[in-house]
Amino acid sequence: MIRLGIDFGGTKIEVAALSDDGRVAARRRVANPRRYEAAVETVRDLVSWAEAETGASGAPVGVAMPGSLSPIDRRVRNANSTWLNGRRFDADLEAVLGRPVRTANDANCFALSEARDGAGANARVVFGVIIGTGCGGGVVVDGALVSGRNDVAGEWGHTPLPWPTAAEQDGPRCWCGRSGCLETWVSGTGFARDYHAATGERLDGEDIIARAYQGEARARDAFARYVDRLGRGLAVVCDILDPDVIVLGGGMSNVAELYPAIGPAIAPHVFSDSFTTPVKPAVHGDSSGVRGAAWLWPAT
């Protein structure tokens, strides 16, 4: 059986055709036109291409998307690609593809992929974390995605930074309209914002990390603040969910120095006399979104 996964990102749209054993039979990535009708047509064209490449006509399609569908009216809500909000995305995709489509938040798809055959394989409870341009999370229990009654399970990026210091009170304004969301602190964007606030210099996260490697004190201090904040945020997840493994994805997950540092940053804040939960980098990297989208359709 071939399943088609679509990763509908803010800047790109990707399709992958997965076989039952997780092998990628075809894959293609194109720019997202960032105009709604054109983007829907791009998904249609990518599906047609993948079917032609694999011969899998009428294959099931899963879509990893920003935000989620409202349980009230099935319109997109909470997407940081704000031009999607209010649209009947799944219905419009089903209309152009001529078949049912399953959708899930992109962080949920990431978690599902890594739980299926990635860094969380064989773990009962997996918490998947995206720390890139934004910040998201997904929960998988016994191999099944947990989206919750209101379809917001795992949305830790829009919870407050726990145990804020005096300097962190209120916090930066978030695109969602609130202030102090965890996303404004522990995303790659938040990391760069914090460095700029401390130094007056605008750099992206990759350049800040490079300076930290080179021994720049300001960059090393910014990274220490980042690890501390990420640790506090994950400690609350551990208190509520107590996952068997935490899997990190997104740009900040590629920082190797994060892994020996993050466990000791989480442990003091967990309501337990022990903390042994492993924190691992994703196995499938930026392919996890498209793979997880395909896995929204189980084996038949």
Structural write-up:
It is a single chain. 35% of the residues lie in helices and 20% in strands. It folds into two domains: 3-109 and 287-294, ATPase, nucleotide binding domain (Nucleotidyltransferase, domain 5); 123-282, ATPase, nucleotide binding domain (Nucleotidyltransferase, domain 5). It starts with a strand and ends in a 6-residue tail after the last helix. A five-stranded mixed β-sheet has the order 3-2-1-4-7. A five-stranded mixed β-sheet has the order 10-9-8-11-12, sandwiched between helices. Helix 6 crosses helix 7 (217-241) and helix 7 crosses helix 8. It has helices at residues 36-54, 89-97, 106-117, 183-186, 188-199, 205-213, 217-241, 258-266, 288-294, and strands at residues 3-8, 12-18, 24-31, 61-65, 68-69, 76-77, 101-105, 125-131, 135-141, 144-146, 245-249, 279-281. The protein has nine helices and twelve strands. With 300 residues, it is of the alpha/beta class.
Under CATH, the topology of the largest domain can be stated as Nucleotidyltransferase, domain 5
Q: Overall pLDDT, averaged?
A: 95
Number of helices: 9
What top-tier CATH class of the largest domain fits best? Alpha Beta
CATH superfamily of the largest domain: ATPase, nucleotide binding domain
Strand tally is 12
